[in-house]
Design brief:
Blueprint (H helix, E strand, L loop, with lengths): L16 E10 L13 E6 L5 E6 L4 H4 L8 E5 L2 E4 L11 E5 L4 E4 L17 H4 L33
Length: about 160
């Protein structure tokens, strides 16, 4: 089976092999529930610097999480893809891949190919304000500190009810 580049991944496929670096992993918490999680999310990047989001359901977390590690490169098979969610995407890709207990991960340990350690979709600062109320793709802001001042108490003088 030949390796499919991320740019060629389409929704509703399950006959593929990808070669990617897992550049970011996180466990989303379920809103409003103490210490309950909703699986595992990953950002995958390939040699062409394309990225795609991967998801693992909570039911598969215990079987999958010990097999993968952020920063490592893998050949991954027995995965499937679906359409990416319409809002709150992490990367601008039409598909999203899903791993489960049957997914296989072959870590590439020999001299790895050049696959970036992270993927960013930077936006010019002048365009940032136009994205404030848009939820199609999540926006991180990178900035720099220009001044440091002591903290001020802004609640002084406010009436409490």
């Amino acid at each position: 089976m030949s390796i499919v580049p991320i740019c060629e991944l389409k929704p509703l496929r399950n006959d593929m092999k990808i070669k990617v670096r897992i550049c970011r992993m996180w466990r989303p918490k379920i809103f409003g529930r103490q210490n309950q999680f909703n699986g595992l999310q990953c950002v995958l990047v390939d040699e062409l610097n394309d990225a795609i989001e991967a998801s693992i359901l909570e039911a598969d977390y215990e079987r999958v999480a010990p097999k993968i590690k952020a920063g490592c490169i893998y050949e991954i098979t027995q995965l499937h893809s679906r359409s990416n969610k319409r809002t709150f995407k992490v990367v601008p890709h039409t598909a999203q891949v899903f791993f489960n207990g049957k997914t296989t991960y072959k870590q590439i340990t020999e001299r790895p190919p050049h696959i970036p350690k992270r993927g960013f979709y930077l936006v010019d600062y002048s365009e940032l304000l136009s994205r404030v109320d848009k939820v199609e793709i999540l926006t991180d802001v990178v900035g720099r500190i220009t001044a440091v001042q002591p903290l001020e108490d802004k609640t002084h003088g406010l009436r409490q009810f």
